[in-house]
Amino acid sequence: MAKDTMIRLKDVCKNYQIGREVIHALDEATLDVREGEFVSIIGPSGSGKSTLMNIIGCLDIADSGEYILDGIPIEDYTEGELARIRNKKIGFVFQSFNLISKLTAEENVELPLIYQKVKRAERARRVEEALKRVKLESRASHYPTELSGGQQQRVAIARAIATNPSLILADEPTGNLDSVTSQEIMDIFHELHSTGHTIVLITHDNDVARQAERSIHILDGRLSEVKR
Amino acid sequence: MQTLKMALKSIGSNKLRAFLTMLGIIIGVMALVILVSLVNGATGSVTDTISSLGSNLLTVSISDNKGAPVFLDDLRTWMEEESIGNVSAYTKESFTGKYAGNAETIDVYGVTAYYDTIQDLSLLLGRFLKSTDIENHTYVCVINDTLATELVGYTDCIGQEISINGVKYTVVGVLEDNENSLTQVFSKDSLVAYIPYTSLVRLSDTSTLEITSFYVSAAENGTTKEAEERITEILMKRFEDDEDAFKVSSQDALENTMSSVTSALTILLGGIAAISLIVGGIGIMNIMLVTVTERTREIGIRKAIGANRRVILQQFLLEAVVLCMMGCAIGIGLSWAILQVIGIVVSSLSITFKMNGTVVLVAVGFCFLIGIVFGLYPANKAAKMKPIDALHYGG
């Protein structure tokens, strides 16, 4: 298997100062994720999971270390360039869904495509396709408040895959859902994985983490491979 | 286009708040449009009145005759001039007029023939004074309708004798109370009698045959300007090139004064209205700041999925501008309605209040500017938010 490296983190550090205390949210974190892999990152709250997610998702920039996403070194990018990378390369799925409540499911999925300046007809086609993949085409014109939690998360996944990103980054995607719905969501991730998407899933739930090909444990900002 | 749709949607999602925010702009625009339109309407009607008083009229007054007084014969000579139409001397006195026991104070004008033509007076009955009346110092008078009804008791009083300052005058003509005559505009309901200039000189202690003021009209095929130049030239020659010895004034001067007064008024009122528009703009800024804070999370989501600064800035700026322009449109619509209503209410005053096109354009431009200026700060605040801070805001 000579697949390209999707994510390469090398000695990444990120510190926060709270009062007088300096918190090492990430301490020389090193991580490689290959294209097409399904990796879960597991750790208790406060372990630096969210910081790692922010850095991988280009929402934040590391204090030191090296981060290469799909061949692009990220460190020196301006805010505008980071926005473009997030738009094109990364699809986010959040714990709290983070849909825009004033927009319908369809419009939510369409939003990243608008930012990419995709033509209207092409947008419509891709929105329909993405909603079909999460089996929500019948709910396209519903507002998020009219959908159940599981359905909202499926809309969020549709939004993440609509741009056809290199990486799907999921932050506790099942954290707000019951176990049955969680499994439905996980099934979608498996389906996406089987069609070649690279997925990084962050969770504190061992059952969820175990479903990934590979699990990485994070504690106090340090990463370690989970042996199976 | 997509951004516009989003802006409309987000304004529509809180209609009451949007309306209250717009209210400042609506009131500002209404103040601006209505006040300026009213001033313009009033000005228009006043200027119309002034120009209908005969814009070919020149008033000449002589303050220093330099030993060469002007007599009636001189006026007659000047009337021969090519660019000059009619010339009529006039002098005004106040006398007591009596008729069969009635007594009134009358404005008595000593004039010459053609005064009626120059002043555009119209006769109801009889005739105006003729050159022969002037030459023969006859005791005839032409009175206005008001005087006829007040003193004599009825309009048709040709041939009646009224006593002016104790001298009996025969009425030979009755004039219409012409709303458009200069004397009528400035002294409404006054009792007026016109008698030959020469005849007045005999009644009066102050008026003499040395004429100190007279009217000049332009020749039929000439302009007032030419007449003004010609009469000035003649008088300069006569009065040893002393331009302070006499004064030639035209109605143009009056109109100019009028328009400079009203343009000052327009600027003043427009300025006050503009202040209220700016206050409205501050209201917009205030609400936009609240909106930005409220929608911090939305901004975070948008940034996470790839919106850059410019897109967010555009979105919130457009929202502010759309809010302003909607307020502007409503304000202009309401102003139009109110001006229509005012127009109906004052229709009897023969003043027309039309919406002024320029002020509408100014209002639209100004609103747009206010939207940009007061929308920029909140929009920039939104655009500057860091995606992670915004995402984790309030949960």
Largest interface: A-B, 26 and 23 residues
Order of helices and strands of chain A: EEEHEEHEHHHEHEHEE
Calculate the terminal CA-CA distance of chain B, rounded to whole Å. 32 Å
CATH architecture of chain A: 3-Layer(aba) Sandwich
Q: Unreliable segments of chain A (pLDDT under 50, ≥5 consecutive)?
A: none
Beta-strand residue fraction of chain A:
25-35%
Number of helices of chain B: 14
Strand order across the largest sheet of chain B: 2-3-8-5-7-6
Strand tally of chain A is 10
Cα gyration radius of chain B (Å): 34 Å
Task: Output the strand order for the largest sheet of chain A.
Answer: 6-7-8-3-9-10
The mean pLDDT of chain A is: 88
Describe the structure in your own words:
The complex is a heterodimer of chains A (228) and B (395). Chain A has 228 residues and is of the alpha/beta class. Chain A has a single domain (38-60, 77-225), classed as 3-Layer(aba) Sandwich (Rossmann fold). Chain A has 7 helices and 10 strands. Chain A has helices spanning 49-56, 79-89, 105-115, 120-133, 149-162, 179-194, 206-210, and strands at 5-18, 21-34, 38-42, 64-69, 72-73, 90-93, 167-171, 198-203, 214-219, 222-225. The model of chain B has no long low-confidence stretch (mean pLDDT 84). In chain B, a hairpin with a 2-residue loop joins strand 6 (161-164) and strand 7 (167-175). Chain B has a 6-stranded mixed barrel, surrounded by 4 helices. Chain B is of the alpha+beta class and 395 residues long. The A-B interface holds A 54, 57, 59-60, 79-80, 83-84, 86-88, 92, 94, 96, 98-100, 102-103, 111-112, 114-116, 159, 163 and B 2, 9-10, 13, 297-298, 300-311, 386-388, 391, 395.
